[in-house]
Amino acid sequence: MRIIGGDAKGRSLHVPGRSKVRPTSDSVKEALFNILSSVQGKTFLDVFAGSGNIGIEALSRGASWAVCIEKNRTLSRFIKKNLLQ
Fold it and tell me: Which of 17, 4, 19, 7 is nearest to 53 (CA)?
């Protein structure tokens, strides 16, 4: 999985190997951010964040703040790992 737009374009993200999490595909992310038009300077909420894929994509595209909500502790660690890389 990778970031497809913005400052971090092309950066790979860590995802759990044997998880039931299904990362959002590149084509769905592209469609979402085309619909949103611009997230520049906005606050972005990523609920059921999984690996943080969408929230980190929003940050890469200029969101000033992203909140990723994930109940699963293992997945929360992946979000932190992806943000700190």
Answer: 4
CA distances from residue 42 to 4, 6, 31, 55, 78 in whole angstroms, order as listed = 19, 14, 18, 12, 24
CA distance 23 to 21: 6
Q: Supply the pTM of this predicted model.
A: 0.91
Phi, psi of 3 (to 5 degrees): -85, 135
Inter-residue long-range contacts of 32-39, CB under 8 Å, 24+ positions, other chains counted: 33/5, 33/57, 33/58, 33/61, 38/62, 39/63
Give the end-to-end CA distance of the chain in Å, rounded to a whole number.
14
Residue pLDDT, tens place only, 12-31: 999 888 767 788 899 999 99
What are the residues facing 43 on neighbouring strands? 65
